[in-house]
Specification:
The protein is mainly alpha-helical. It has a single domain, classed as ABC transporter involved in vitamin B12 uptake, BtuC, CATH 1.10.3470.10. It contains 14 helices and no strands. α3 (36-71) packs across α12, α6 packs antiparallel against α7 and α13 (273-294) packs across α14 (301-327). It is found in: Cell membrane. One of its GO terms (molecular function) is transmembrane transporter activity. The chain crosses the membrane at residues 48-68, 80-105, 111-131, 143-162, 182-203, 231-251, 297-317. Pfam families: FecCD.
């Protein structure tokens, strides 16, 4: 069902706009080939934007499922753990140094922006994990350290913007909102490659993720190499998040929201990876469609997902606090 929803959103995303294309025109152009004008609209303007939205959403959904599963905490997402902020800080530094271009593939940042974002995310993950280590990693300590590191990185990012020239600052600020505007096919390939490589690697950890829900001692007794497993999970989550951020900017709450919805729909003990990816793809693509068609003015998808995700986070926190008081 989720896959069908994604397919429908793909067609709607291509239809959305002022060109007057019908569903038949879109399907004919995609599978058979329309006239030159239709091919330009579909393949050069609309399809890259929808493709980036689907890939970014899937990457963030899988990354969120991985971090929530290995930490056994629904709040431990790449956003809260600082990975998103680390990738964003690295990318903003590249934008400022690169002369004001923000789309992946623009100018001198054709290869550099995804790589720098990955480096920023990896360094942040190492710092957060290292500061959280006390003969093991407690999920709440991990979250608190992540919040502190995120705040520091946000300050660094804002400092870079303040020190940048006006055109560079404007480009960085536009990118930081989280938007699919202006993406091209060059934006698609880094996210597609990272998802193609990291998703199968993440799926090899499915059994270990299931066992670690029982606790580290039990999972070690059942033959799980916990530290090696965590390293693989963290690398997958960081690379998926960082490359996604480099393509679209930080789109908030997708990595938090998608795994929780997937877990409730699947009725499983932890968020399923593939379902989380599909729901993440649907959330980003649907949010982009809403932002550019259903509102009086065009709104970046990052704002739409924040409007939807923030109340859900508040509800989850309130629900957990109520449950803890009831148990006590």
């Amino acid at each position: 069902m989720t896959g069908a929803l994604v397919a429908v959103l793909l067609v709607i995303g291509i239809l959305a706009g002022s060109s007057g294309l019908s569903v038949g025109d879109v399907l004919h152009t995609l599978f058979i080939g329309g006239d030159a004008g239709q091919r330009f609209i579909v393949f050069e303007l609309r399809l890259p934007r929808v493709a980036v939205g689907l890939l970014v959403g899937a990457s963030l959904g899988v990354a969120g499922a991985l971090t929530q599963s290995f930490s056994r905490n629904p709040l431990a997402t790449p956003d809260i753990l600082g990975v998103t902020s680390g990738a964003a800080a690295g990318a903003v530094a590249a934008i400022v140094i690169g002369g004001g271009t923000y789309a992946v593939g623009s100018g001198m940042l054709g290869v550099g922006l995804p790589a720098i974002a990955v480096i920023g995310g990896l360094v942040t993950a190492i710092v957060v994990y290292g500061l959280s280590w006390r003969s093991g990693v407690d999920s709440y300590r991990l979250i608190l350290v992540g919040i502190g590191v995120t705040a520091s990185l946000t300050g660094i990012t804002q400092y870079l913007i303040v020190r940048a020239q006006l055109t560079q600052a404007a480009a960085a600020q536009q990118w930081l909102v989280g938007s699919l505007s202006g993406v091209s096919w060059i934006s698609v390939w880094p996210v597609l490659v990272s998802l193609t490589v990291m998703l199968p690697l993440a799926l090899t950890q499915t059994r270990a993720l299931d066992l670690t829900q029982l606790g580290d001692d039990v999972s070690v007794g059942l033959g799980v190499a916990v530290q090696r497993h965590r390293l693989i999970v963290i690398v997958c989550a960081v690379v998926l998040t960082a490359v996604a951020v480099s393509a679209s900017g930080p789109i908030e709450f997708v990595a938090f929201l998608a795994p929780q919805v997937a877990r409730r729909l699947a009725a499983t003990a932890r968020p399923p990876l593939l379902a989380s990816g599909l729901i993440g793809a649907a959330v980003v693509t649907g949010g982009d469609i809403v932002g550019r068609t259903l509102l009086p003015w065009s709104v970046p998808v990052g704002i739409v997902t924040a409007i939807v995700g923030a109340p859900y986070l508040i509800w989850l926190l309130t629900r957990r606090n109520s449950r803890e008081r009831t148990t006590a």
